[in-house]
User: Fold these one by one.
Assistant:
Number 1:
Amino acid sequence: MFKKVVVTLSIVVASLGFTSVVFADDSVKKDIVDIALENGSLNTFGEALKAANLVDTLKSEGPFTVFAPTDKAFANLPEGTLEALLKPENKSKLTAILSYHIVKSKLTGNDIVKATSFETSQGQKLTVSTAGGRVMINNAGVSMIDVKASNGVIHVIDAVLMPKE
């Protein structure tokens, strides 16, 4: 019975355009920050976490769910936006934006596809929908789910989420 449920969930997740990643047991010993910094496509996100002083928060026990934008997502921001956000005088704005990508609980891919919204650590909600067979978090497509960490889970998204000001 259990195998049937797992297979069914895998088919549903695959049909929604997700890539599910399962790491060896050693990776689960790593926290969200370590996994993000070691991932070749989340370098900008890792640097932004450092600039916003969110590293210690995301190294704590959690659990957390992080919707991590890829380097390409950051590159798609309007010209000069990322550079401006990384300046020390814009730290509070950067912190608000990155906190909008964090949920203070562990949400698996299965939890995401069943929900309509989640409250972020920044205080605003993220909206979940489907478009063209893809799961969307606000305007960002989810491209990879369930990257497990010792203190939560990462879901990779293809756009930077911007909270309402």
Note: The two ends are 48 Å apart (CA to CA).
Number 2:
Amino acid sequence: MHTDTPIIEAAEGFGGMRVAGWIAVIAVFLAILVDGMDNQLLYFAVPVLIKQWHLSTVAAGALGSYQLIGLGIGGITGGWFSDRIGRVKVMLISLTIFAGFNFIVGFSQSYTQFAICRFLGGLGLGCLYTIGMLLAAEYVPTVHRGKFLSAMAAAFSIGLMCAALLAGWIIPIWGWRTVFFASIVPGLICFIILCFVKDPQSYLAVRAAKLAAAKEGKTAADKPRNEYALMFANPKTRRIFLIWVCMAITMQFGYAGATNWMPTYLANELGINFKSVSWYLAASYFATVIGKLLAGVIADKFGRSKVWLFGGVSTAIVIPILVHYASPANVAALVLLFGFFYGIPYAINPTFMNESFPTEFRGTATGAAHNLGRIGSTISPIMIGLVASKYTIGAGLGLLAIAYLVTGVIGGFFVKDKMYDPRAVGKQI
């Protein structure tokens, strides 16, 4: 692992962290859970909105894309700001914007109002995942980072599972608006906990060096002050950044396409009733949680890139099996199998990515790479909708296998493990 200073790995308590680290991990866990809940609540509401507002499949798919555009803009901007003003402050601002507009969306009276609120809420939600994972990575020791951050990624799936159960219970009785009103509760809890979190030492040391250099009228180590310029001036970090952008696009194309369209596929093409769909998907997300947790443990032992490759290729194999052989009789088992594999790259993503960049511009790099990847998650629902309008939703889901295969191969062969230590205090470039 590249660093010019000693790596902080001293046993500071359970998991190698002090109390401050555990508070940060809990806060990030809840933030990612809220992200997952919000993601799934929309797509359980889509079948109802299609009937209520007479939407086409393309228009329905675009609802997710509007928020994803906001997520991308907010995430890229938030990543840069996290290097400038701090990880925690950016997360608090982001959570406030998101929670407010997520509540307001429940009052929407038209497709346009709904789309605008989702876009504006996305601006706030955009950096919760990347900056939250970054914050956790800078607190958790390398030896445990895969396990802890895969648990953070599993929080997203737990949020999906909670939303699936919540939507299956609430929507048929009280309507889709109620689930958006109820979702503000975990957001408020997360906000309160975040108020007790401080920025990690590795970031504070880099921030202090930048401020000292600025006061003297010069740049630290005679490097450009702008984080983007600093990243692109180094051939190594420039190359890794561009590779991560490609990986993020293909990974999110596959993940978002599956998450967005699976409920509609099960309900409309396989004829499964709404309550059964919610239970099937909740079980699938439970399998995803198990897969993500196991992936983190294995990645700490055998390496990030190997597990990443396995997850991408395995999912690429399972998707065609699900599409071609699913029936009401066996779909529960196949959805469980799919759920176990398709989240593995996402589980490894935060550890793998945050160890690919130095602290000096880690927020900028990971925020930009991950959120440029939302190009994939933005076009995926629309592309599946277009294919579904001409053929079937199952045929559209077949596109995801290609995306998973590509992302698995790129990460498995072109990105090295543990290039930088997020906990190291001192210059890393």
Note: Confidence is low (pLDDT under 50) at residues 2-11.
Number 3:
Amino acid sequence: MTSTVSSRLDGRIALVTGAARGIGRAIAQAFLRAGAIVWATDVVLRSDDALPVGARFHYLDVRDERAWDAIITALLSEHGRLDILVNNAGVTGFETSDGAPPRHDPEHLSLADWRAVLETNLDGVMLGCRAALRAMRAHRPAGAGGSIVNIGSRSGLVGIPRAAAYAASKAAIRNHTRTVALYAAEERLAVRCNAVHPAAILTPMWEPMLGNGPDRAARMAEFVRDTPLQRFGTPEEVAALVVHLAADESAYTTGADFVLDGGLLAGSAAVPRGAVG
């Protein structure tokens, strides 16, 4: 029998990284609506961030091994178990507050900028998966299953000429997800691991490119011109899929990729023109 939306994750303990805005915040909100107890984590709170009402916010720098140890210890001390981990925190490499963003094409990308992206996007996922596997091995109730969901990107499935580090990090997340899934199954851990690959989701990341001027609508239309559904996706649409992957209804799903791109990769327009997503 299918559970109602409000009870699909009833009482589950979930940790979501990068949850202060965008997709991470939408996932935390969806988990709360589904009945989960949510630890929403991020490395920074901006003045325009609105944390999900009911979530417990904790600072977490996903690049920091000791920080992962500390937050998992605190979570287990309070709740006794971890049921769901969503590795959502990530950077594009174009974030900057003091001028033009660095160049990220393969010819001009610096080693420091390359490492900065992979440190958050890939090291953070590795550390999160490792922490969750250890916690779920030691603290799984009999017969209960754990779920790890890694947020990748369409950019990890195709080449992105001017976002080399971002694309490489997201491609690696895809493979690491499969590795974690197979390892957990081999170890009989009752833990599943899946990856979600969004593209052109309307989050704050897009705002600098879209602007607030009279040409905003035209810019939006241009960015999704090659997308069959002819629109941006929403963080809530990503969150709905993540809830499904966290819930018991997906108990036979592990090591899988789920692409939310409005149908773009179903056809031939695979390479976006300079954008990431």
Note: The radius of gyration is 18 Å.
Number 4:
Amino acid sequence: VHALISAVDDPYYRAVFKFLLSTGLRISELLSLKEDDISITGGTARIRIRGKGSKERIIAVPADVAREAMDAGIFSRKVSARTIQRALRRCAERAGIRKRVTPHVLRHTFAVLLIEKGVPVNKIQVLLGHESLATTGIYLKIAGESVLVPKVV
């Protein structure tokens, strides 16, 4: 993650990638966000997301990440998902990452990092906007056997 972010020279894409890594949003969710969907209070920003199936959820993100995203204009600049994918691929190559990196890989990274921190899987399910806990369970396999027993609180 650090190598990837360090390889990004464009402030717009740095803000996009950090926002995706900090929220676990789908690329379509990110592209549909408007600045009005974000409210910042203290050190935390709350984001109202309209996800798959027009379902709405609210998640928190560090205020500095939200401010950086707002300053970089990621909610007003119109780019395609494909443009973001290409920029991410170029930055991953520049960082020396050999694996295929896509916006969805950043979503997986967000989930796996939460699992490794011991966040209960049902809370991760809500953050990711998954309807089924089984869908979130896929991330448990990615994280490795050490976390295969989910905490449900």
Note: The chain has eight helices and three strands.
